[in-house]
Amino acid sequence: MGKRILRNFVVFNFLDSFFSAACHAIIVLFWLKIGLTMSEIAFLNGAYFVACFVFEFPTGVIADLFGRRISILFGLLICAVAYLFYGFSFCFWSCLTAEMTLAFGQSFISGALDAWLKDSLDYYQHKGNLTKNFSLGEIALRLASGLSGFFGAYLGLIDYHLAFLFSALGLGFLALLSLFMLSENYFVKSDLTLQKSFKKIIVDSWRFGCQKKIVWRIILSMSFMAMACQALNLQWSLVLADKLGPEIIGPAWIGVKLFEFFGLLVVYFLIEKKFIGAQLLQFANLLIVFCLLPMIYFDNGWFILLFFLLQEIGRGIFAPTRKALLQENIPGQVRATIGSFAEMIMKIFMAVGWFCFAVLSDYFSYKIVWLCSLPILFLAVSFCRKIKTLPKI
To answer: How open is the CA angle 185-189-195, to the nearest 5 degrees?
Structure first.
């Protein structure tokens, strides 16, 4: 049964990413196409991350109270509605509505899916390395995202709105499919009311966080890294489109996902070499630093593309490692809640990073903006170095 759980987890990640990622490669170009300024884009994405911050914790409590499958189902349906909004968006306010709705929907899924996997594997007594299990999901996610982003980039050459409508239809289909894929027969509904559950879980989570400082170090290390990466997320498509032409975005997106996939394979190799989670996070951060330096120094578009792809290896290492570190150090009864809390903190850091880098890009070149991300990456490394007592994963 454990193998079936893993298979369903991988398939769900693939389909969720395939239907969601059609617009990822062209989203900034879409915003500029409909007339948004960089300041408006900064506000738009900042509002998305703030909404994620607000919604993450309460939706995590709902997943712990009513079940992970119900939470994921609601999340998929709400995300489908958000992409439908985007499919008919032509101004800032309609985009803002779509972003806020998307943040609400995604908050039902984040934390709940990871908690479902860990609880299901524990229930069926499946033995295996948790980091490797999460890596399988990330491999499926990256593969699907690459294919979908490539497909969406070419849909965008016809009309950007088509990519969003494709996402809306796909996620609606996946919501129905999730009823059969994500079984949770072992889940027992809590007898507490929603209000009492919020109060109890908030108190328990606070006490847990005060007692287990290592979780805060994990959260801060991953949050600073995610914050620094917003400089690249904001401008990579603009820089490459300017230097190599807009036709490069589709193939570049495929390259991004291939190199992230390679990063997931590196995780397997380093685990075999007895690396622990904190060392993996350090390695991921430092790899991004070493790739960012030549991207800042050189002007050639192909050279920038090469090192941009190489830094994606670090991002591929980052995703499954942070998830496994958190899940190994969180008790089952508040697993979705604290998982959502970690996502909440990370997204507020991402909001600050995106907003600040977008404002800087109105006044300075992309090189200055990317240079400003380096100190933040070193902060992430410093928190990784403080994670001393984690078990091998």
So the answer is: 155
Q: What letter would DSSP give residue 390? A: P
Residue 88: partners with Cβ closer than 8 Å, 6 or more residues away: 94, 161
- Helix, strand, coil distribution of the chain in percent, nearest 5: 85, 0, 15
pLDDT at 101: 92
Pinpoint the alpha helices (H) of 212-331: 213-244, 249-272, 277-297, 301-328
Q: Count other Cβ atoms within 10 Å, centred on residue 1.
A: 12
Residue 189, token pair as written in the block: 């509904």
DSSP secondary-structure letter at 91?
Answer: S
What whole-number distance in Å separates Cα of residue 185 and Cα of residue 211? 32
Task: Spell out the domains of the chain, with CATH numbers in brackets.
Answer: 2-180+194-385 (1.20.1250.20)
SS3 248: helix
Pull the structure tokens for residue 293: 């330096």
For every residue of 259-290, DSSP letters joined together read HHHHHHHHHHHHHHTT--HHHHHHHHHHHHHH
- Return the H-helix or E-strand segment holding 104: helix 92-109
pLDDT digits (tens, 9 = 90+) for 47-70: 887 787 777 666 666 776 777 788
